[in-house]
């Protein structure tokens, strides 16, 4: 055999002591000898050397190829000597000596094996606890300064793998790795070494603890950001600036890093400014709201107005992400589940049943591990990001459109609340999860009304109500970061000014022109206008007058210039001068911007959203279609019905590339609508059966998956009248994947019937299944019937109903001529029937027939049928997917 020949040839070569392996080189063996054992040189030969001696001989052979072979096979060598500690230590000492080989290819081969060797040592740590730290870590660190470029690159890659896998202890990183990186980044260091060291240090920082970064690397990083000689160093620092900020936190970012970031954003090279624009969101997340608003916002405006088109392009792509850092969860009232789904806390907990027309109730929000209460916008626009991943830049996909907000962690009391308390405490308020509650001003407002002059309850005086208003304003000052508080302060400030002005007018005496009388709850304002006193902030909800003129895009959540620039992204001129896909970036980040502004400021984005929804580029409309369900959660039911439903209906009639976006989240959108509005879509579900390309079977597969979820949103009569026909049509699809998922849909519909007590509808459906599938002339139909019986669960229908209406037809298929049908019959009988106590009771009408059928299947000529008929029911359940 080839392998035997080559083993013998290799051994003969070593035994004869030749130093030329070219005649028996591995490259000459061909692909048939891929399984050759590299460590064959350790086998006993004519040299009378021990395996360790043979290793020593060839590890330091004069022939370079011999040394390469030894380096390449080190992992296998260690395995062979791992039983004896003394031999193992000898091998490790040999490796340490080999690391000093003068041939770069040998050193590179050795370094490529280090991660595998480290993993082996990690698994064998009880026997060799300090071997890796003592022998291999010094090699990795030394190779970082190797004169050969290939060796250095290999050591850098190995170091990152070791850190990612947690194979280097913290002590070794601090005492061995970081000092070398600091030496290589000294001002006097060689340029090539310095650039490489900066890159590896920036990658290293994300794998280290905060204390290690602050103590060892932070100050050096600040120096490197100002490197005036090497623009490559500044560019690497700019590209990784956000990672440093996120690791060291807010204090260090504002005290040490912020000034460096300003310098990099105004660097003379456009590539460095572009890198700053790309990481702007992460930097913003690491600053306080005040710094974000007063310093970072003007800085970002300068980048978005940069003279370089590439910088402006990067800035516009990051604009939505930067805006999302202004998000305040306390004002949105929304929270995220662990899977990234955006939800609104239910006002009252309710259990979910199969007959319910509403979705399940989720538990109240909880903060993330880092104390931030608003997770990434990528999770909110998951569908859009996954669907457009092929067209999205890698950094954008990696960062997502994150809207982490640097709010402090929730109070300990909120964390300590149990799930039971969350659902039973009548005083529970998810608002308190994000910050301490605002002061209650209801009593002060009552005092305002009580102290108003008689006959004019809304009027206030300086001596009484004016002072009370001022007290309330003083109480609200610590909470001015919240947009809701800002709106409330504006209302109270206006009332205070009106009170002071009126008091001044009354002191001067009555004027010739008296303002008209006002009723309860109304005050007089300058100019004779009347304003209503209210303890609620002004709202822009549906049903109220829409803002006009200058108020159309006015809000106080984010700096207005940022919003103006964002709204300009739909301007065709931007596409010509900045980026042809700028509208797509605008659409991608719109849910995050809408969440940041809150539903009370939806009027600022409504026109922009409608413009994007009618964009000529289908990619823009597709992006909106994938995220419209999340936007509906943000806006609430009233705004959704008024502004999103018409656009949703338009997407339903769009190209398949757009329709798939709404289809993938059809359940998520429909569950947000009122029951009457939701029922209107029953007539349109059938339209999803028609696609632009009939071979687009994944479209129909997705429809079946969504219908399984949608069943719970409708009553059993609607399910029977509308969804049943779609399910049966999908069960006859030409593609097997669509058919199998449709069979599960049929079972879910059957469960719906019996769970809601609609036994008559369930029986009609069963009869239809028997006629359509059990008596189907095609074997795939009969197999489908057996599968439906197999996945039927005990809560689907009573066992007596199953025995009476489904079991006889299932037993009739036990003698089907097609083995694939009999296999599923065997599995159904063993898994869903035989273990049920109902059929084991004495006198059961089908117990004898069942035993006979199973016995016959166990003696079937087909091996698979015999196997599943004899298999334990629990094993049969585990092997279901294998057959399908």
UniProtKB/TrEMBL annotation:
Keywords: Repeat
Listed InterPro entries: 2AA_helical, ARM-like, ARM-type_fold, HEAT_type_2, PP2A_Regulatory_Subunit_A, WRNPLPNID
Domain Phosphatase 2A Regulatory Subunit A helical, chain residue ranges per copy: 95-324
Presence of keyword Phosphoprotein: no
Biased segments, Basic and acidic residues type: 393-402, 417-426
Cellular component terms per the entry's GO annotation: cytoplasm
Entries under PROSITE patterns matching the protein: HEAT_REPEAT
Boundaries of every Putative WW-binding domain copy: 427-449
Chain positions of HEAT repeats: 296-334, 806-829
Domain of life: Eukaryota
UniProt-annotated stretches for the region Disordered: 346-431, 501-554
One Pfam family linked to the record: WRNPLPNID
GO MF, any single term: protein phosphatase regulator activity
Keyword Repeat found: yes
Compositional bias annotation for Polar residues: 349-389, 501-514
PANTHER family: SERINE/THREONINE-PROTEIN PHOSPHATASE PP2A 65 KDA REGULATORY SUBUNIT, WW-BINDING DOMAIN-CONTAINING PROTEIN-RELATED
Protein's UniProt name: WW-binding domain-containing protein
Organism: Esox lucius (Northern pike)
Gene it is expressed from: PPP4R1
């Amino acid at each position: 055999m080839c392998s035997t020949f080559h083993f013998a040839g290799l051994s003969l070569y070593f035994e004869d002591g030749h130093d030329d392996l070219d005649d028996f080189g591995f490259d000459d063996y061909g692909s048939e000898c891929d399984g050759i054992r590299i460590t064959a040189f350790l086998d006993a030969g004519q040299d009378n050397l021990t395996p360790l001696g043979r290793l020593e001989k060839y590890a330091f052979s004069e022939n370079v190829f011999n040394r390469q072979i030894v380096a390449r096979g080190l992992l296998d060598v260690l395995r062979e000597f791992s039983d004896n500690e003394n031999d193992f230590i000898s091998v490790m000492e040999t490796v340490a000596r080999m690391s000093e080989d003068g041939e770069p290819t040998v050193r590179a081969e050795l370094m490529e094996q280090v991660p595998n060797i480290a993993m082996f040592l990690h698994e064998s740590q009880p026997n060799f606890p300090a071997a890796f730290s003592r022998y291999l870590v010094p090699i990795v660190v030394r190779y970082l300064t190797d004169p050969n470029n290939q060796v250095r690159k290999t050591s850098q890659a190995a170091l990152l793998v070791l850190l990612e896998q947690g194979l280097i202890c913290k002590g070794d990183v601090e005492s061995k790795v970081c000092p070398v990186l600091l030496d290589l980044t000294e001002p006097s260091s060689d340029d090539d070494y310095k650039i490489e060291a900066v890159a590896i240090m920036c990658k290293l920082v994300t794998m280290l603890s905060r204390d290690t970064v602050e103590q060892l690397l932070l100050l050096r990083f600040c120096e490197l950001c100002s490197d005036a000689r090497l623009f490559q160093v500044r560019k690497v620092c700019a590209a990784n600036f956000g990672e440093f900020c996120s690791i060291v936190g807010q204090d260090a970012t504002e005290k040490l890093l912020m000034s460096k970031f300003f310098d990099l954003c105004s660097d003379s090279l456009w590539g460095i400014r572009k890198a700053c624009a790309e990481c702007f969101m992460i930097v913003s997340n690491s600053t306080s709201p005040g710094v974000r608003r007063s310093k970072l916002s003007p800085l970002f405006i300068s980048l978005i107005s940069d003279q370089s088109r590439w910088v402006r392009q990067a800035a516009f792509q990051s604009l939505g992400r930067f805006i999302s850092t202004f998000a305040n969860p306390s004002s949105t009232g929304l929270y995220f589940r662990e899977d990234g789904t955006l939800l609104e806390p239910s006002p009252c907990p309710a259990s979910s049943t199969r007959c319910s027309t509403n979705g399940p109730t989720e538990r109240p929000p909880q903060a993330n591990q880092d104390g931030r209460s608003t997770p990434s916008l990528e999770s909110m626009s998951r569908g859009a990001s996954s669907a457009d991943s092929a067209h999205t830049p890698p950094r954008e996909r990696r960062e997502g459109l994150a809207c982490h907000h640097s709010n402090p962690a929730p109070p300990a009391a909120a964390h300590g609340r149990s799930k039971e308390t969350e659902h039973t405490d009548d005083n529970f308020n998810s608002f308190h999860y994000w910050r301490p509650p605002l002061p209650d001003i209801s009593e002060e407002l009552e005092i305002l009304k009580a102290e108003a002059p008689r006959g004019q309850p809304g009027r206030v005086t300086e001596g009484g109500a004016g002072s009370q208003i001022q007290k309330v304003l003083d109480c609200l000052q610590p909470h001015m970061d919240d947009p809701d508080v800002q709106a409330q302060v504006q209302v109270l400030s206006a009332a205070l000014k009106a009170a002071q002005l009126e008091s001044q007018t009354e002191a001067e005496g009555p004027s010739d022109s008296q303002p008209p009388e006002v009723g309860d709850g109304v005050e007089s304002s300058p100019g004779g206008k009347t304003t209503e006193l209210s303890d609620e902030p002004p709202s822009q909800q549906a049903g109220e007058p829409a803002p006009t003129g200058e108020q159309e895009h006015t809000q106080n959540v984010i700096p207005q210039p940022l919003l103006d620039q964002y709204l300009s992204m739909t301007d065709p001129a931007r596409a010509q001068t900045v980026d042809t896909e700028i509208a797509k970036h605008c659409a991608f980040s719109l849910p995050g911007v809408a969440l940041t502004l809150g539903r009370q400021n939806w009027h600022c984005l409504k026109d922009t959203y409608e413009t994007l929804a009618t964009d000529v580029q289908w990619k823009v409309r597709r992006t909106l279609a994938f995220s419209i369900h999340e936007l509906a959660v943000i806006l609430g039911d009233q705004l959704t019905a008024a502004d999103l439903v018409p656009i949703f209906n338009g997407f339903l009639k769009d190209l398949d590339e757009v329709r798939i976006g709404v289809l993938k989240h059809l359940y998520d959108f429909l569950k947000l609508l009122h029951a009457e509005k939701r029922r209107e879509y029953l007539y349109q579900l059938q339209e999803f059966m028609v696609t632009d390309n009939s071979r687009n079977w994944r479209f129909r597969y997705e429809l079946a998956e969504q219908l399984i979820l949608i069943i719970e949103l409708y009553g059993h009569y609607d399910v029977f009248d509308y969804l049943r026909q779609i399910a049966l049509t999908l069960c006859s699809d030409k593609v097997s994947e669509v058919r199998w998922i449709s069979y599960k849909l049929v079972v879910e519909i059957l469960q719906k019937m019996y769970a809601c007590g609609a036994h008559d509808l369930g029986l009609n459906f069963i009869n239809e299944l028997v006629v359509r599938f059990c008596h189907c002339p095609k074997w795939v139909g009969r197999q489908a019937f057996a599968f439906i019986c197999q996945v039927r669960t005990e809560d689907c229908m009573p066992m007596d109903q199953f025995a009476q209406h489904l079991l006889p037809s299932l037993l009739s298929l036990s003698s089907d001529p097609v083995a694939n049908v009999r296999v599923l019959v065997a599995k159904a009988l063993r898994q869903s029937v035989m273990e049920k106590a109902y059929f084991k009771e004495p006198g059961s009408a089908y117990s004898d027939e069942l035993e006979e059928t199973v016995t016959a299947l166990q003696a079937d000529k087909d091996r698979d049928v015999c196997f599943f008929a004899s298999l334990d029911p629990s094993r049969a359940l585990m092997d279901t997917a294998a057959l399908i």
